[in-house]
Amino acid sequence: MLRPVLPGSSKNPITVSDITPDFAAEVKRRSGTSPCLCWHCRCCTNGCPFYQAMDIGPNDVIRLVQLGLKDRALRCSAIWVCVGCHTCSSECPMAIDISAIMDTLRQMALEEGIEVVEPDILRFHEEVLKSLKRYGRAHKLEIMLRYKVRKRDWLSDIDVGLKMLAKRKLDLMPSKIKKIGELKKIFVKEDI
Amino acid sequence: MEHKIRMKLSYFPGCSLATSAKENNWSLIEICRKIGLKLIELEDWNCCGSSSAHSLNSRLALNLASRILSLAPPERPLLVACPSCNMRLRHAQHYLKENASARDEYQRLCGRPFDPYLKIMHFFELFDQIKLSDFCGKENHALNGLRFVPYYGCMLTRPPSMRREKNYYGLMENVLSSVGASPVQWSCASRCCGTFLSAAKPDFVAELVNNIVRSAHNAAAECIVTACAMCHLNLEIRCNMKDRIPVFHFSELLSLVLGSGFPKGWSSRHIVDPMPILKARELFL
C-alpha cells in the first residue's frame, strides 16, 4: 500500500502558517494523556491490527499532533478506522493512551465540521446512537437496515444478513427500556 | 456437586447477550445457578454506549455508563457478561473516582452519590477465584482432551490508566485444562476481531477474521473458545473460508462441564455446527 508522505520531509515541507501552536496542549487536555511523550518507537503502528486499513499509522497521527498540524491530523482516516482495542496503548513504553487521543481527534474533527474521509464508519456510529436514543438499547437489525438505506446499498452483505436472521442472531423487535425519558435527557444534553 | 457458594450478584447482560448471543446468556446464567450464584438483573438497564458513544462523544459515553452504575445496589458485586461493556463500566468508574467534578455531574444525573467501592467484574473473572473442578464432582476430565485455542481478542488490553489492575491472561487455558481440555498455543489469541468495522468495512474484517481462523486451524485446534459475544459473532459471520472450525462461548463449554446440557435448538444458533466435534469427543450424547 502506497502511503502519503508525511509533512516534515523535503518532499513535503511544513509551512509555518499550517501550524496550530497550542494543538498538542489541547489534545493533551481533552484526552487526559500526553502525546508529546511519544518518541516514535512505532510499537503502536507495528502492532495495530487495523494499520492496513489506515492511511497513516497511530504514531504518525501523534507526530502530526506534536507538530501542531491540526488540519492534517483531523483529516486522516486512521482516527476513524481505530476501534479503540487498546492493543497499541498496552504496548506503548510511554504508557500513552493512544485510543483516547484518537477519540479526541475524531470528536474535534466533528466539531470543526471537517469532511469525514470514512463516511460509512461515521454513519454506522450515528445509527447506533439513534437506536440507543430511541430504545435505550442497541437494536442491531434496525441499525443495519437504516445504515444500508443511508448508504444506498442494499445488496452487498445481504447473504450475511440472511444468515444472521436464519441463525436467530437478529431480533426482529427492539428491546426498549421503561424509563426512556432518562436516556433521552442524556442525549439531548449533548445535542444528539 | 461437592459444594455451592450461595451468593447474590447484580447482573448486567448487555445488548449482545440479550439478542445475538442468547446462547451465551443462557449458559452463563445456568452455570451461575449451578455453582450457587444468584444473578439479579439490573432493573431497566440501558446500553453502555458500545464503541459508538465514546467514538463520537466522550461525555455521552460516560453518562450512559453512569446510569448503569447508578442502577447497581452497593451491597453486591456487579457481574458483567460482555468484556466490552465491562471495559466501558470500569473505565467510567475509574474516571469518576479520579474526577470530583464528574462525580458532581453523576449525582445531578443519577440522583444519588457515586459509589467508588462497587465491585465490577467480568463473568470470566469468577473462575479466577473459584476452582471449577470442585463443582463437577469426581469427573474432572469432563472435556475429554478437546483441543482448543483460547481467543481473548482485545478483552485483556486496557488503557494505561488501568494498567495496575489485575490481568487475566491465561485464565481460559487454566480453567478449561483443569477439566480435561487441551489448550493449543497459537499466534492470534489477542488479535482484535474488528468489532464494529464488521459493518462498515466487511471485506477488511473478513480478511482479519480469516487470518485468525486460519491460524487456529494451522495450530490443529478443534475449536476456538472466546469469552466475548462480539468476537464470537465476527468470527462466525465474517469467516468465508472453506476450512472452518466451531467457535464456542467460554460459558457454553463450562455449562457442558457442569452437566447443564443445552436447550433444544441450541446448536442451530451456531453458523459452524459444533455437534460433530462434540460427538467425536463423546461430549454430547
Describe this structure in words.
Chain A: GO terms for molecular function: 4 iron, 4 sulfur cluster binding; CoB--CoM heterodisulfide reductase activity; metal ion binding. Chain A: Residues 29-59, 82-101 form the 4Fe-4S ferredoxin-type domain. The complex is a heterodimer of chains A (192) and B (285). Chain A is mainly α and 192 residues long. Chain A has helices spanning 23-31, 43-47, 58-67, 70-74, 78-81, 87-91, 98-111, 119-135, 140-151, 158-166, 180-189. Chain A starts with 22 loop residues before the first helix and ends with a helix. The mean pLDDT of chain A is 94. With 285 residues, chain B is α/β, with parallel strands linked by helices. Chain B folds into two domains: 7-123, Glutathione S-transferase Yfyf (Class Pi), Chain A, domain 2; 134-280, Rossmann fold. Chain B has helices at residues 14-18, 22-35, 50-56, 58-71, 83-98, 100-110, 126-129, 171-177, 197-200, 202-218, 229-237, 250-257, 275-280; strands at 7-12, 37-41, 78-80, 120-122, 147-151, 182-183, 223-226, 247-249. In chain B, the strands form two sheets. A four-stranded parallel beta sheet of chain B has the order 2-1-3-4. Chain B has a four-stranded parallel beta sheet with strand order 6-5-7-8, sandwiched between helices. In chain B, helix 2 (22-35) crosses helix 12 (250-257), helix 3 (50-56) crosses helix 4 (58-71) and helix 5 crosses helix 6 (100-110). The mean pLDDT of chain B is 93. At the A-B interface, helix 6, helix 7, helix 8, helix 9 and helix 10 of A face helix 3, helix 4, helix 9 and helix 10 of B.
